[in-house]
Amino acid sequence: MARTFKRQRQTHPISELNVTNLIDVAFTLLIIFMIATPLIQQEQTIPVNLPGESKREQQKPPSDTTFVAISIDRSGNYYYGSERMSLPEISRQLMAEAAKSKQPVIRIRADLTLQWQQVVRVMDEVKRHNLTKITFDTEAN
After folding, report:
1. Enclosing H/E stretch for 40
2. 110 in helix, strand or coil?
3. Which end of the chain has fewer CB within 10 Å, C or N?
4. Residue 5: is its pLDDT beyond 90?
């Protein structure tokens, strides 16, 4: 009474594709973009007529760089990110940024029609808090 235990080979191909992992990745990317898009668009909503720039090669910042936008509109109103603030309030925000271990890059977005003195006031506040990374936003010609 010997018995042979042979396993039957599966001869038909598997026609199902497991897409669970692909769906997880797609939803993760969707969530990341849903969070990142409003943050990028917030500072773009302040109407500022930016000065033009020359057509030369731009340097790309490192991927871990954080940016803080300070905008000055045509009327001389100051904005920290998308929130309207006075210059002393912006100074307090800059003090908090200076206390962080990694300095952010301060993006100054000033309207083309402004007097330079208003931009210099912002630069003085940035300098007073020992923040050394400053950039000015311009429009491409």
Report:
1. helix 20-42
2. strand
3. N
4. no
> Any alpha helices (H) in 43-138, and if so which ranges?
87-98, 116-128
Question: CA-CA distance, 119 to 77, in Å (whole number)?
Answer: 11
The pLDDT-based confidence of 20 (bands split at 50, 70, 90) is confident
| Both tokens assigned to 106 | 């301060």
- What is 20-48+65-141's CATH topology? Nucleotidyltransferase; domain 5 (3.30.420)
Q: Tokens for 128, please give them.
A: 């007073």
Nearest to 127, CA basis, from 96, 98, 100: 98
Domain ranges of the chain: 20-48+65-141
- CA 90 – CA 72 distance, rounded (Å): 12
Model confidence band, residue 26 (pLDDT cutoffs 50, 70, 90)? very high
pTM above 0.90? no
Query: In this structure, what DSSP letter does residue 75 have?
Result: T
Collect all residues with Cβ–Cβ distance below 8 Å to 96 and sequence separation of at least 6: none
pLDDT digits over 47-88, tens only? 666 666 666 666 676 677 788 889 988 888 999 988 898 999
The token pair that represents 21 in the structure block = 């992992």
